[in-house]
Design a protein that fits this description.
With 203 residues, the protein is mainly β. 4% of the residues lie in helices and 49% in strands. It contains one helix and 20 strands. An eight-stranded mixed sheet has the order 3-6-9-12-15-18-20-19. It has a seven-stranded parallel sheet with strand order 1-2-5-8-11-14-17, covered by helices on one side. β19 and β20 form a beta hairpin. It is globular, with a radius of gyration of 16 Å.
C-alpha cells in the first residue's frame, strides 16, 4: 500500500493521520499543517518526506507508537514543530515498537524522539534541533528512566546536543547513545555560536 498525500489547500492533517495509521508507505510531497495525534498500534508504516515538504506541527501533532508498531522515516523534508504545539514531542515510542530514522529534518519543541518501555530507536541520518531546553539541558533524544528502551545513533547531525554525552540519564545509565564503531565530531557555527555534533564512522 502506498498513499500519496497531496493537499489541495494548506491542511489535510486528518488524511495524513488516517493514511499513516493504516500502515504501508505514506509519501508527502507538499507542505501543510499537522495538528492531529497519530497512533500506530502494531502497524508497519513508512513516512517519506519529499524534499520540498514542510509539515508544520502544531496542536496535538505527534506520532505515538505502541504494541509492535514499526515506523521508518526517510526523505529530505522537514517536520517543523512550533511553540504552538501542545506536546513538544515529534515521535514517542512505547511498548515493543521500533523507530528507524534514515533521513529528514526534525525541528522539535523539546524532543524529537522519546523511547520508553521496550522500544528501540535507530537513527542513521537526519538533522535534529530543538526550540527549547529543560532544566539547563537539551532533550532532543530522550530515553525514559527505568525502562528497557534503547536509542542507538549511527549517523545524523544534532544542534547543541551531543548524543555521545547527553547528560540526561540517571546514575548508572550510560549517557552515550552512539553505536559502537561510530564517533561524534563537533564544530561550531560561527554565525550562531551553536555547537554542531555529527555522528560518523570511526576511522
Amino acid at each position: 500500500k502506498i498513499y500519496t498525500v497531496v493537499p489541495e489547500e494548506y491542511t489535510l492533517s486528518s488524511e495524513f493521520r488516517d493514511n499513516l495509521e493504516a500502515g504501508g508507505k505514506v509519501e508527502v510531497n507538499k507542505s501543510f499543517i499537522w495538528d492531529d495525534q497519530i497512533e500506530l498500534i502494531s502497524k508497519k508504516s513508512e513516512l517519506i518526506l519529499g524534499e520540498d515538504s514542510v509539515l508544520t506541527v502544531e496542536g496535538d501533532g505527534i506520532i505515538d507508537l505502541n504494541g509492535d508498531a514499526e515506523l521508518v522515516i526517510d526523505g529530505k523534508g522537514k517536520l517543523n514543530q512550533t511553540l504552538d504545539s501542545e506536546i513538544g514531542y515529534l515521535v514517542r515510542a512505547a511498548g515493543n515498537s521500533k523507530v528507524t530514522i534514515k533521513d529528514g529534518n526534525f525541528i522539535a519543541g523539546l524532543t524529537a524522539v522519546q523511547a520508553g518501555d521496550n522500544a528501540v530507536v535507530e537513527i542513521y541520518g537526519g538533522y535534529f534541533e530543538a526550540l527549547v531546553g529543560y532544566s539547563g539541558k537539551n532533550w532532543i533524544l530522550n530515553l525514559m528512566d527505568n525502562t528497557n528502551a534503547k536509542i542507538i545513533v549511527y549517523g545524523g547531525t544534532f544542534v547543541n546536543f551531543d548524543p555521545s554525552d547527553t547528560n540526561t540519564e540517571p546514575a548508572g545509565v550510560s549517557d552515550n547513545f552512539v553505536a559502537e564503531g561510530y564517533k561524534v565530531v563537533m564544530t561550531t557555527d560561527e554565525a550562531t555560536g551553536n555547537k554542531i555534533y555529527t555522528v560518523v564512522p570511526e576511522e
